Amino acid sequence: MSIFGSSHFGLPRLKPLNSKRSHIVSVLDIGSTKVVCMIGRLTPRPESEILPGRTHSIEIIGLGHQRSRGVKNGVVVDLDAAESVVRLAVDAAERMAGLTIDSLIVNVSAGRLQSDIYTGTIDLGGQEVEAADLRKVLTAAGQRSLRQDRAILHSLPTGYSLDGERGIRDPLSMYGDVLGVDMHVLTAERTALKNLELCVNRAHLSVEGMVATPYASGLSALVDDEVELGCACIDMGGGTTAISVFAEGKLVHADAVALGGHHVTTDIARGLSTRIEDAERLKVVHGSALPNASDESDIVAVPPIGEDDRDQPTHVPRALLSRIVRARIEETLELIRDRIQRSGFSPIVGKRIVLTGGASQLTGLPEAARRILARNVRVGRPLGVSGLPAAAKGAAFSTAVGLMIYPQVAELEAHSTQGGMLASLAGGNGRIARMGQWLKESF
């Protein structure tokens, strides 16, 4: 079945959900630490001051999550293991929701995400800007972003210009000689996306759409003022840390680094010579990203690696554990700081940073981030969804909830260009071309 073929719950078009209808949406967050499947009921909601961009309210009716296997730093490294975990997570969500699903919206952390801004211009000859002109200028910008080895995940017009006047949000019906557009295009390596899709297909499911992890996390963890005024969302997962920058209501930049909470765990396991699961427990219970006066006097018991029950745990000062944790956290935060600086979006981010993702729950992390990033930092949890069990309300579930929100903002993307862009990307066949065909027919 084409991944955009029709399915029984009426969402396959990822159309702007501005209808008066309810939808069932299913999503899959494939991470290095856990795999989460969520099934949600989206019900039309009235315009509201709270989260005004949302057209529907979201109620989670099914949730399944499993410890991840076969995924390293966001990349599928063992198809069999990853497939079995996907099956288990989907199965649990289906049982809870009391329905079966056949397609999902999936997140992408792998494939060396790359953000670029492309500019396109067309001549208007002093005429009024019409819808056809907008399509033309988006296509002109889109054509410049075509690459053989990379696939386009998102293409978002960030702003239009008329006769050199920038910052125009909607030029429709305005007059001018030259219409320009700046388009933020987010791409990923095609092979990484193929392996991700293969993993889902092997579990007898189809991929309905792919959303970059940084985009999804930002959608769920940021409030409107942040999205409007400019803010960075940093999603610290197990194997990757994703960075997204939002301004004027749109995603303007995204990036990901292959460092996450699991790297802290392996550092502890190596440094204190203990098993990975014991290292994880030590990190959660005793680990801190901040030095503490009592660390030298506090003693932590470290279970040995050996199988022999008679082996006694070793005792180390908590200061040693904290030093190991701090070294890796500081390295990660410094890398993020440099990435934001290099991206050129540092002024747009201003003083606002939101931390989310499972690894953001480490003790003392917000304070460490404030110091290293020299900005205001808060920990963001998924906003505006009901029906989540208490265990799933934390920052670790931001990406999955963001995937659930995504269909409501899908119309921001430059769909009219994607028919051409995506069809040429896949040489007229395969998933991307079908998606192009679907976009042509749908819009």
CATH superfamily of the largest domain: ATPase, nucleotide binding domain
| CATH level-two architecture of the largest domain | 2-Layer Sandwich
Main sheet specs: 6 strands, mixed
Radius of gyration equals 23 Å
Instruction: State the CATH class of the largest domain.
Output: Alpha Beta
The span between the termini is 21 Å
- What's the quaternary structure here? single chain
Q: Which stretches of 5+ consecutive residues score pLDDT under 50? A: 1-13, 416-443
Query: Strand order, biggest sheet?
Result: 11-6-1-2-3-19
Strand composition percent: 25-35%
- Helix/strand-derived category reads alpha/beta
The number of domains: 3
DSSP helical segment count:
13
Shape: globular
The whole-number mean of residue pLDDT values reads: 85
CATH topology tier name of the largest domain: Nucleotidyltransferase, domain 5
Notes on the protein architecture:
The chain has 443 residues and is of the alpha/beta class. The protein folds into 3 domains: 184 residues, Nucleotidyltransferase, domain 5 (2-Layer Sandwich), CATH 3.30.420.40; 75 residues, Dna Ligase, domain 1; 157 residues, 2-Layer Sandwich (Nucleotidyltransferase, domain 5), CATH 3.30.420. The chain contains 13 helices and 19 strands. A 6-stranded mixed beta sheet has the order 11-6-1-2-3-19, with helices on both faces. Strand 4 and strand 5 form a beta hairpin. The longest helix is centred in the C-terminal third of the chain and has 26 residues. This is Cell division protein FtsA.
